[in-house]
Amino acid sequence: MGDVLIFAEHLGGHFPKTTLTAIHAGVELAQKRGASATAVVAGDAPDAVAAEIAKYGAAKVIALAHPALKNYLADAHAAALAALVKKTGAEFVVTTATALGKDLMPRLAARLGAPMASEITAINDDGTYVRPMYAGNAMATIEMDGPVKVITVRGTAFDAAKPAASVSPIEKLDAEIDAAALKQEFVSFNQTKSDRPQLTEARIVVSGGRGLKSGENFKIVLEPLVDEMGAAMGASRAAVDAGFVPNDLQVGQTGKVVAPELYVAVGISGAIQHLAGMKDSKIIVAINKDEEAPIFSVADYGLVADLFKAVPEMVEELKKVKAH
């Protein structure tokens, strides 16, 4: 059996929880295939991040170095990974279906002429995989044929890897990148900074929908609730498309997939595409004035009320509780 390469995503020397999810899934896949799991950290000087990743249970960590890998460039990263796959003879390449993973892995699969399974939610003992279809309304069991298989895993479907009892050995390699893949140029990275938790890693998410009617209402009605609860803020696609909030807050099939301990949906009707991004949340609370809204079909607690009255009242009650 060929081994498993786990692409360990990081930014500025730090890796998100989603990277630990990829490691957990990759190690699980390797165990079920009787293979070995190797984490790959790419960068211009990846040693420090590789040393951190080495604490989480991969059999080995490869620190893949090249000046072109300092920042994420799709062509350079795809070329470097493709060359590494050929060099190591790996059978699987795994990462989490983040924005970067969704951009990089199809390019890698194309370079390798390999089949790809996206957003898998389970790895079966018989060599098949489970992935959602039709916005999560059907689950398909699939198998892939070929010397190399490329996989992205849904970040909410697997646990994050825990620190292991021992530290993995680290191998330093210079990345091989063909000249054509070096034509892309990194210009700038404009990071959105917020004191709130990251949407995909927060324990509590409060999302607003079209029912809030304007971007101003997101600020004066929803944000006080978000901040009182110490939550991350999300939004439905309808709210994003209406220009109420930026698209990095979008939760749903074409946005971010989240599974917090508590998800509060405010003024969200609950279209299938939105439910696909949050229905795995442990507890779902819905506030909507339409008692027939589909969101109530997945909610653990539902409040049929005018959000412009209910949300400020919730904020005041939370303040009272905190005061005691």
Would you spell out the secondary-structure blueprint of this structure?
Elements: E1 4-7, H1 17-33, E2 37-43, H2 47-53, E3 60-65, H3 74-88, E4 92-96, H4 99-112, E5 116-120, E6 122-123, E7 129-133, E8 138-142, E9 149-153, E10 170-174, E11 204-208, H5 215-228, E12 232-235, H6 237-241, E13 262-266, H7 272-275, E14 283-288, E15 301-304, H8 307-323
Parallel strand pairs: 1-2, 1-4, 2-3, 3-10, 4-9, 5-9, 11-12, 11-13, 13-14, 14-15
Antiparallel strand pairs: 6-7, 7-8
Helix pairs in contact: 3-4, 5-8
Architecture overview:
The protein is an alpha/beta fold. Helices cover 29% and strands 23% of the residues. It contains eight helices and 15 strands. It has helices at residues 17-33, 47-53, 74-88, 99-112, 215-228, 237-241, 272-275, 307-323, and strands at 4-7, 37-43, 60-65, 92-96, 116-120, 122-123, 129-133, 138-142, 149-153, 170-174, 204-208, 232-235, 262-266, 283-288, 301-304. The protein has a seven-stranded parallel sheet with strand order 5-9-4-1-2-3-10, sandwiched between helices. Helix 3 (74-88) packs across helix 4 (99-112) and helix 5 runs parallel beside helix 8. The longest helix has 17 residues, at 17-33. It starts with a strand and ends with a helix. The relative contact order is 0.12.
